[in-house]
Amino acid sequence: MAELAGWKRMEDLPEDVWIRIIRWARIRIANRGRCGAQTRTELTARSSLSAEDCARMECTCKSIKKALDIDVMWEKFLARDYLLEEPRFPTKETELSVSRKSPRNVYLAWKHEFSKYGALTARALKCWKRIETWTRREIEEVYASLCPGATESELDLTEQDLGHPLPPALRVVYRLHNGQDLLYDRMVDQRRFVGGSRREAHPSLFHGVFGGYAFYDQMVNVRFFSLDRMVRWTELCKAQGIVPVDSSCVVFAASFNFQKIFVAHCELGLVFVSHSSRQTLSQAVPRGEDAEDGFLRWLEYFSDRMQNGTFSVKSFDGSTGSLGISLYPVSGPEYHVRVTEGVQCEASCVYVPELSQTHHHFFSYSIRFRLLSLEEQEEKCGTAHEAVQLQDRRWNILDMHGERVDQVSGDGVVGQYPYLKAGGPPYEYQSCTSVEEGPGFMEGSFGFVVGSISTPRGSRIEVECPRFELDRPDYII
Questions:
Q1: Which of 196, 258, 315, 429 is spaced 20 to 30 Å from 446 by Cα?
Q2: 3-state DSSP call for residue 422?
Q3: Strand 387-398 versus strand 404-411 pairing type
């Protein structure tokens, strides 16, 4: 708090602060006699005074302190500097230690506790704000699972347990949210999986904040570990050789089956991804100018994609009890759509690091079909079909130059022959492919019968699947 107060006498104030105060005072004087309290409050909120100006004014002149709508000003500073919609202390411990919950005291508490992290604080706040806003709107269970932030003493104790320091970028993220609290993890902690408890915990398997994907028997959904679970799972992974024993690596996130594990390398300041059956780490974030902010750049990339609508909420096993964050893109440059004679085909893919190797990259793709309504078909295609049924598929695998290196064809998709009605529900399936080296591309077509396979009512339709890229991304999520 002392660094905000600074000066104790009016004559000590710098000229630029005086200019802002005079401008504010002129607005107040000019409007005091002809506007109500609400208008004066709005004028105060729009003034150019900074948090430092307010703190110094409070210490130098009681009359100015009394005239200023202090609460409104501090609420503005809280929204601007800490993205808070209403005054909220950073931790319960801080709230209990302060006698009065005023916007000013809340601001000073945040300033006091986070000043050591400098510009990292604003970056971490923006990340979590994006994640909180999206999850609160799209999947409340994930939002509700985010734990309050850890205290500095809890982080210090974690460093003692690990035997090495955590990078500031990782500490500041945990200061805002100390992992997730999911029923499945609580039951793992207690080793309590009996009777109906397993069914009770099943939905929480898919509530990981970092999302996942599912195809065939591969199902991953990554949750964010609290500090105590970070310590426990790091020790276990090192004991099993999944993470190098002599490294400053910590396991901060993993899928429920530990097929996909995210590791923060505290010495290098980078994020890596691993698989429980392999002792190799794949870099999940490129090196940056700052040697220690890799974790925060990784989180910024993830939260930015979440905010931009790249992800969606989908069922992982076909049931309503398995809703989670799906990483298959549903918008942006990695999402592709094509309409052929009224049948819409959407395609996107994700990189699967846990199944990939140095020179062999694995991908999962999601294909979604929908037969447009009769009105949409007439408008876009000039013809209309009441129903169609998929009969077969053909895929072309291309190299980086667009030359075909492989072709795959067969009946149906994943053993099914979806039947689509005009304006009816879509059909979606997930499968996988791989490429040597890379990048590569994939494109193809699907043969549909107008009517049904057993009762065809028209000619065959070759529905185009738009080309999508198969390339290892710089950021792996």
A1: 315
A2: coil
A3: antiparallel
Report d(CA 345, CA 338) in Å as an integer: 5
Structure-token pair, residue 104:
């000013």
**CA separation for the pair 302, 312 (Å, rounded):** 13
Interatomic CA distance for residues 348 and 367, integer angstroms: 7
- Tokens, residue 311: 């992800």
**Over the chain (477 residues), what is each successive 10-residue block's mean pLDDT?**
46 59 58 49 54 64 58 82 85 79 87 91 96 97 96 96 95 97 90 63 93 94 98 93 86 94 94 81 86 91 97 90 95 96 97 89 96 95 93 93 89 96 96 88 96 92 96 95
**Nearest Cα residue to 147 out of 84, 94, 224:** 224
Decide: helix, strand or coil at residue 62.
Answer: helix
Alpha-carbon radius of gyration of the chain: 28
* Cα 441 from Cα 334, distance rounded (Å): 12
Q: Counting Cβ atoms within 10 Å, is residue 190 exposed (0-12), middle (13-18) or buried (19+)? A: exposed
Helices (H), 47-182: 51-60, 62-67, 70-82, 92-97, 103-114, 119-138, 140-145, 152-162, 168-176
pLDDT of residue 51: 72
Eight-class DSSP state of 9? S
Task: Give the pairing of strands 323-326 and 312-315.
Answer: antiparallel
Q: What is this structure's pTM? A: 0.86
Instruction: Show the DSSP H helices in 263-317 as ranges.
Output: 294-307
Sequence letter at residue 26: R
Contact in structure between 393 and 410 (CB atoms under 8 Å): yes
Q: Residue written as tokens 């905000």?
A: 4
Per the structure block, which two tokens stand in for 173?
A: 């993220």
Angle, helix 227-239 to helix 152-162, in steps of 10 degrees = 10
Report how far residue 214's alpha carbon sits from residue 350's, in angstroms, rounded to the nearest whole number: 11
pLDDT for the residue 477:
94
